[in-house]
Amino acid sequence: MGVLNEFKAFAVKGNVVDMAVGIIIGAAFGKIVTSFVGDLIMPPIGMLIGGVDFSDLVITLKAAEGATPAVVLAYGKFIQTILDFVIVAFAIFMGVKAINRLKREEAVAPSLPPVPTKEEELLGEIRDLLRAQNNRP
C-alpha cells in the first residue's frame, strides 16, 4: 500500500499536473503548426518556385515493382517538418521571452512595507512607555 500512496502523492503534485497539461497543449499546438505550415506557408512557397508541392519532392531510390512500393527519400516532407520545428521553436522562444519579461517586471515592482498588526502597534506603544519610564530622573 505504501508504493500506491507514494505514487498517488507524486501524481497529484502541481509540477506533474502542469507538465501533463503542457504536453497536451503542446500536442494540440503541434497540429496547428503542422496545418499552418502545410496548408498556408508551403503552397505559396511552392508556387514561387514553380508550382512545386513540397510533399511531392522525392528522390526515387528504387522504382515500384508489382506489389512492392517504391523506395523514396521524401525530402520535401523533411523540409516541411523543419519549417514546422522552426515555427514551434520560435513560438516557444517568444513565450519564454514574455514570461521572463513578466518575471523581471514583477521582481522590479516595489513592494509596500507590511502594515503592522494591532498587536505590533500595542507592543510598540508598551515599549515606548517603558523607555519613557526608564529615562525619568
Automatic annotation (TrEMBL):
<keyword id="KW-0472">Membrane</keyword>
<feature type="transmembrane region" description="Helical">
    <location>
        <begin position="78"/>
        <end position="96"/>
    </location>
</feature>
<keyword id="KW-0813">Transport</keyword>
<dbReference type="InterPro" id="IPR036019">
    <property type="entry name" value="MscL_channel"/>
</dbReference>
<dbReference type="GO" id="GO:0008381">
    <property type="term" value="F:mechanosensitive monoatomic ion channel activity"/>
</dbReference>
<dbReference type="InterPro" id="IPR019823">
    <property type="entry name" value="Mechanosensitive_channel_CS"/>
</dbReference>
<dbReference type="InterPro" id="IPR001185">
    <property type="entry name" value="MS_channel"/>
</dbReference>
<keyword id="KW-0997">Cell inner membrane</keyword>
<comment type="function">
    <text>Channel that opens in response to stretch forces in the membrane lipid bilayer. May participate in the regulation of osmotic pressure changes within the cell.</text>
</comment>
<dbReference type="Pfam" id="PF01741">
    <property type="entry name" value="MscL"/>
</dbReference>
<dbReference type="InterPro" id="IPR037673">
    <property type="entry name" value="MSC/AndL"/>
</dbReference>
<keyword id="KW-1133">Transmembrane helix</keyword>
<keyword id="KW-0406">Ion transport</keyword>
<comment type="subunit">
    <text>Homopentamer.</text>
</comment>
<dbReference type="GO" id="GO:0005886">
    <property type="term" value="C:plasma membrane"/>
</dbReference>
<protein>
    <recommendedName>
        <fullName>Large-conductance mechanosensitive channel</fullName>
    </recommendedName>
</protein>
<keyword id="KW-0812">Transmembrane</keyword>
<keyword id="KW-1003">Cell membrane</keyword>
<feature type="transmembrane region" description="Helical">
    <location>
        <begin position="16"/>
        <end position="38"/>
    </location>
</feature>
<keyword id="KW-0407">Ion channel</keyword>
<comment type="similarity">
    <text>Belongs to the MscL family.</text>
</comment>
